[in-house]
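User: I'll paste a sequence; please echo it back and then give the predicted structure.

Assistant: Echoing your sequence first, then the prediction.
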Amino acid sequence: MSKALLIIDMQNFVKERIQQGVDYFPQTGIENMTSVMDKFRTSGCPVIHVRHQTPEQGSPLHHSSPSSQPLEAFEERPGEPVFIKHTSSAFSSTELLAHLQETNISEVVVIGAVAGFCVNSTVRMGADLGLKMTVLKDAVLSFELEKSQLSAKTILDVTLGLLDAGFAQVIATRELNVH
């Protein structure tokens, strides 16, 4: 069984939300993500990037917007594929599944943003497609939903609880074996 790291939506909008004071959780999430990414790269296991872009001109996530560009620490290296999605799930609007099948990857370790949205959608669809999905609970970010009065931690806890109930293995970064 071949394993790959899937990095979801680690783009400038994440840093911008944090700089605007939007509550996020876990506070060590980005640091944990870079550590996991380094482990995968050092071991020679595949690293795959997914980025969200919307086709509408003027959208913060339009490809011409600085918000849609990858965070510096999450720029791809040569040989690391990048899939651009226009939907919540990384599988719905990309050739990600075909790539995984062509490269004989059957286990996907997921990190990135945002837990309750694109991470959630991608993990559920990956499980539905028959992939072994693993989510690193301390290497995915959640943001508060102020309008709904839901804290970032509450959203993360509920999202991970639901994913762990039948869609993915949910573990801490320290529990991950990369090889």
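Residues 29-43 form the longest helix (15 residues). Residues 2-175 form a domain with the Rossmann fold fold (CATH 3.40.50.850).
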